[in-house]
Write a structure and sequence with these properties.
With 342 residues, the protein is α/β, with parallel strands linked by helices. It folds into two domains: 7-239, 3-Layer(aba) Sandwich (Rossmann fold), CATH 3.40.50; 244-339, Alpha-Beta Plaits (2-Layer Sandwich), CATH 3.30.70. Helices cover 35% and strands 25% of the residues. It is built from twelve helices and 14 strands. It has helices at 7-10, 63-70, 92-96, 115-125, 130-143, 159-172, 189-204, 216-222, 240-250, 262-271, 295-305, 320-329, and strands at residues 17-29, 36-48, 52-56, 78-83, 86-87, 99-102, 177-181, 208-213, 225-230, 233-239, 251-256, 276-278, 285-289, 310-315. The strands form three sheets. It has a six-stranded mixed beta sheet with strand order 6-7-8-3-9-10, with helices on both faces. It has a four-stranded antiparallel beta sheet with strand order 2-1-4-5. A hairpin with a 6-residue loop joins strand 12 (276-278) and strand 13. Helix 4 (115-125) packs across helix 5. The relative contact order is 0.13. Bound molecules: adenosine-5'-triphosphate and magnesium ion (MG).
C-alpha cells in the first residue's frame, strides 16, 4: 500500500504535512457581465498526515474551488499545491497518484453501471484488475451496507447509497489522501452518521481526509483541526477545541437585579456591539463577549454608572455554531488561541 501508518497517527498527533496549499488564488469571469469573481484569494493551509481536516465555510465561500484546485481539476491563477512535497503542476500524475476525490454532485459514478461494476471500472482506471480487487470490492460493499444493491444500476440507488458508493470508489484507489466535497450534504440523519463512521474508519487505517462542509456539527464531530474560509479567504486555521475555548473565555452572562435603563443600555451597546439583553428568565441577563479580559473593568464600570446591580457573573459555554456565526457572518476578528487570555 502506498500509505503508511505513522506513530503520529496512532497517538492522534498529526503534524507532518501531506498536502501543502500555498497562496492559491482563482477567479472566474461571470458569463454575462464578464465581471470577475474572486473565488479563492491567497489561500494557504496544510493537511497533516492521519487527520480529518475540515474546510468549513458558508455557501459560495470557495470550498469546492479549493478542492478542485488541489486535485488539479482547475488551474490556479497563482499559488501552488504540493502532495508529499510533489508539485501538482510540475509533476501532475505523480502528485495526483496520492489523492482521490469525491466531488459534490453526482458525477463521481458511472450511471449506467451497477454498484459493483462501478467499483471494478474505477479500480481499472487506477490500473488494478478485476481479479486483484474482487475481494476488496465485496468487502467494501458489505462494509458500506451496499451488498444487497451490488447489482443495481447506480441511477436507481438513493442519494445516500450513491454517496457511500462514491467514497468506496475513492477508497479502492488506495490513495493516501481522500478529498471529500460536502460528504454528508443532503443525507438523512442516519446515513449522515453512517458516513461519519466510515470516515473515522478511513483515518484509523492511516489515511488522511480533507473534507469540505458548511455544517459545523460535522467539523465538531470529526475534525480536530479546521480551516474556516469565507469570501475565498482563510478566516481561521486552528484546532476546534482552541476556537471553542477562545470564545468561551470571551463570553459572559451577567445577571442583573433589574433591567438597565435605555440610556445605560445605549452606552453598553456602543462599547460592546454584540451585547444582548435576555429577558426570558426570572432576572434579566446581559450576554456579552469581551475581546480582552481587561474589558471586564469597563463593562462593570458602565453597569455601575447605569445603577444596574450585578447579581451574578458567569462564563457561558459556546457551541461551534455560535463561533462560526461570529467569525464568518459577523466578521469577528480572530487572533488565534495565543490571544485568548490577553
Ligand atoms: N465555474 C465557475 N464560473 C464562475 N464562477 C464560479 C465558478 N465556480 C465557482 N464560481 C464562484 O466562485 C465562488 C466560490 O464558489 P464555490 O463553489 O467554490 O463555493 P463553495 O464554498 O463550494 O459553496 P457551496 O457551499 O455552495 O458549495 C462563488 O461565488 C461561485 O459563484
Ligand atoms: Mg461547494
Amino acid at each position: 500500500m502506498p500509505f503508511r501508518t505513522r506513530a503520529a497517527t496512532l497517538t492522534g498527533i498529526a503534524t507532518e504535512p501531506v498536502i501543502e496549499v500555498k497562496s492559491l488564488s482563482k477567479s472566474f469571469r461571470k458569463r454575462k457581465s464578464r465581471e470577475r469573481v474572486q473565488a479563492v484569494a491567497d489561500v494557504s493551509f496544510d493537511v497533516r498526515r492521519g487527520e480529518i481536516l475540515g474546510l468549513l465555510g458558508p455557501n459560495g465561500a470557495g470550498k469546492t474551488t479549493t478542492i478542485k484546485l488541489i486535485c488539479s481539476l482547475l488551474l490556479p491563477d497563482s499559488g501552488r499545491v504540493t502532495v508529499n512535497g510533489i508539485d501538482t503542476q510540475r509533476d501532475r500524475s505523480r502528485a495526483l497518484g496520492h489523492i482521490s476525490a469525491v466531488l459534490e454532485g453526482n458525477r463521481n459514478l458511472y450511471w449506467r453501471l451497477s454498484a459493483r461494476e462501478n467499483l471494478y471500472y474505477f479500480a481499472g482506471n487506477r490500473g488494478r484488475s478485476k481479479r486483484q480487487v474482487r475481494e476488496e470490492v465485496d468487502r467494501l460493499l458489505e462494509q458500506f451496507g451496499l451488498a444487497e444493491k451490488r447489482n443495481e444500476l447506480v441511477n436507481t440507488l438513493s442519494r445516500g447509497m450513491q454517496q457511500k458508493l462514491a467514497i468506496a470508489v475513492a477508497l479502492l484507489a488506495h490513495s493516501e489522501v481522500i478529498l471529500l466535497d460536502e460528504p454528508t450534504l443532503g443525507l438523512d440523519v442516519e446515513t449522515g452518521y453512517e458516513v461519519r463512521e466510515i470516515l473515522r474508519g478511513i483515518v484509523r487505517e492511516g489515511r488522511t481526509i480533507l473534507l469540505s462542509t458548511h455544517d459545523m456539527s460535522v467539523v465538531q464531530d470529526l475534525c480536530r483541526r479546521t480551516v474556516v474560509i469565507n469570501d475565498g479567504r482563510v478566516v481561521v486555521d486552528d484546532e476546534v477545541a482552541n476556537l471553542l475555548r477562545l470564545f468561551e473565555t470571551r463570553a459572559y452572562a451577567v445577571e442583573l437585579a433589574e433591567e438597565p435603563g435605555a440610556e445605560a443600555l445605549g452606552r453598553l451597546r456602543a462599547a460592546f456591539p454584540a451585547v444582548e439583553l435576555d429577558r426570558d428568565g426570572a432576572t434579566p441577563v446581559l450576554r456579552v463577549e469581551l475581546e480582552h479580559a481587561a474589558d471586564m473593568y469597563e463593562l462593570i464600570e458602565l453597569l455601575r454608572a447605569g445603577s444596574a446591580r450585578i447579581e451574578g457573573l458567569n462564563r457561558t459555554t459556546v457551541n461551534f455554531e455560535h463561533v462560526f456565526r461570529r467569525l464568518v457572518r459577523e466578521g469577528v476578528s480572530y487572533g488565534g488561541a495565543a490571544h485568548a487570555i490577553d
